Amino acid sequence: MGLFNVYPLFDITPVRAQDVYIYDKDDNEYLDLYGGHAVISIGHSHPTYVKRLSDQLDKIAFYSNSIQNPLQQQMADKLARLSGCHDYDLFLCNSGAEANENALKVASFATGKKKVIAFNNSFHGRTSAAVAVTDNPKIVAPINAQQEVIFCELGDVNAVEKALETGDVCCIIIETIQGVGGLDEATTSFFDLIVTLSRKHNCLIIADEVQSGFGRTGDFFAFQKHKWTPDLIPIAKGMGNGFPVGGVLIHHDIKASFGMLGTTFGGNHLACTAVNAVLDVIESENLMQKANDTSTYFLDQIKEIKEIKRVKGRGLMLGLEFDFPIAELRKDLILNHRIFTGNSKNPNLIRILPSLTVQQHHLDHFVTALKKALKTRTS
Questions:
Q1: Does the pLDDT of residue 285 top 80, yes or no?
Q2: 252 and 108 in contact (C-beta within 8 Å)?
Q3: Phi/psi of residue 339, each to 5°?
Q4: Burial tier of 51 (Cβ tally within 10 Å: 0-12, 13-18, 19+)
Q5: pLDDT of 288-318, one tens digit each?
Q6: What is the average pLDDT score of the chain?
Q7: Could you read off the pLDDT of 60-113 as tens digits, one per residue?
Q8: Which letter does DSSP use for residue 298 in this model?
């Protein structure tokens, strides 16, 4: 049996990893500044993470959500304390797409409505409703197109207000900082205005923190810089440091009922152990502050690279924008300089999404390699 061929792959076969480094089958070392789509938050094979998961495997790895699992409440308590989001309940699932899918479903249940406002260049996942609110027609199948979605330009308050005036919108879904779309971020005033409009029209707001959450921007959640209160907060990626896990923070104003949501694997013992380890490491190693400090250093180092026309994002969720397509540059970085970076819907933008444990000397290495690669490109 073959594999369903949907991924364009680099000819690299990782066999082990440690902190910000990946090693292939020939023991070549690669600097990982992408973290497998912002998934690696506390570094590959962090000793605390490895020990906790190994110990949990010796006890119990899985049982369904028909029994008590104290690890879930332990996680919820830690998450509330570290994030400051005390006015929420937590629903656990397995991925970012699932998190967004369930957030959309809760919004529809809570309001009794079904239309959604999303934004151009958004990405929220590949499941039924999540892909419908993703701005990429190529991955929306006919069965997904039944969802009623209104796409607005990010930052266009008038377009949002006009869409809400129909009275049948259940929610607005927005990435505080767009990930796949290219690291664009709306202003604080825009967030303030859409919150006001949503309350006026009995519409909920989903802050998709799947990629930007868990300290990546220097705040626990990216929306916190703008000082507003979402109704629902989908989370995943850096949450499990590679273990498949996701969740939704659901505001206390929204009431649960038995059977409203459900999952077989979500919140299992191993998943909870992984997240609890991540939260403990983020706190004990002060990784949110380190993300801010490292970002400040990095931004200072790249000022002298004239080919970089704009830097987008915050913390360690960054995009370097050039005035040319970066596909060949990124290929050069990974194959010749052995540095992993990311791309986006914006063909001119390289994404930098390393572990929060990345250090200044790692970024110095990248800056040196980038300069060499840019020089090679023009020679």
A1: yes
A2: no
A3: -130, 125
A4: exposed
A5: 999 999 999 999 999 999 999 999 999 999 9
A6: 97
A7: 999 999 999 999 999 999 999 999 999 999 999 999 999 999 999 999 999 999
A8: H
Those residues with Cβ within 8 angstroms of residue 261's Cβ, 6 or more apart along the chain or in another chain: 91, 102, 105, 106
| Confidence class for position 379, pLDDT limits 50, 70, 90 | confident
Q: What is the pTM assigned to this prediction? A: 0.97
N-to-C CA span, the chain: 45
User: Cα–Cα distance between 318 and 295 in angstroms, integer?
Assistant: 9
Look up tokens 């444990």; give the residue: 357
Structure confidence at residue 42 as a pLDDT band (50, 70, 90)? very high
Q: What is the rounded distance in angstroms from the CA atom of residue 348 to the CA atom of residue 320?
A: 8
Report pLDDT for 378: 79
- The DSSP result for 303-358, as a single string, is GG-TT--EEEEETTEEEEE-SS--HHHHHHHHHTS-EE-B--SSTTEEEE---TT-
- Residue 314 CA to residue 185 CA, distance in Å, equals 10
CATH 3.90.1150.10 for the 14-46+286-378 domain, yes or no: yes
Q: Domain limits of the chain?
A: 14-46+286-378, 48-284
**CA 5 to each of CA 2, 36, 211, 345: distance values in angstroms, whole numbers, following the listed order:** 8, 19, 25, 21
Whether residue 276 contacts residue 78, with contact meaning beta carbons closer than 8 Å, is answered with yes
Residue for token digits 């152990």? 273
How far CA 139 is from CA of 22, 116, 131, in Å, comes to: 30, 18, 7
Cα angle value 327/330/332 (rounded, 5°): 110
For residue 255, give the DSSP letter: P
Question: Any idea which fold 48-284 has?
Answer: Aspartate Aminotransferase; domain 2 (3.40.640)
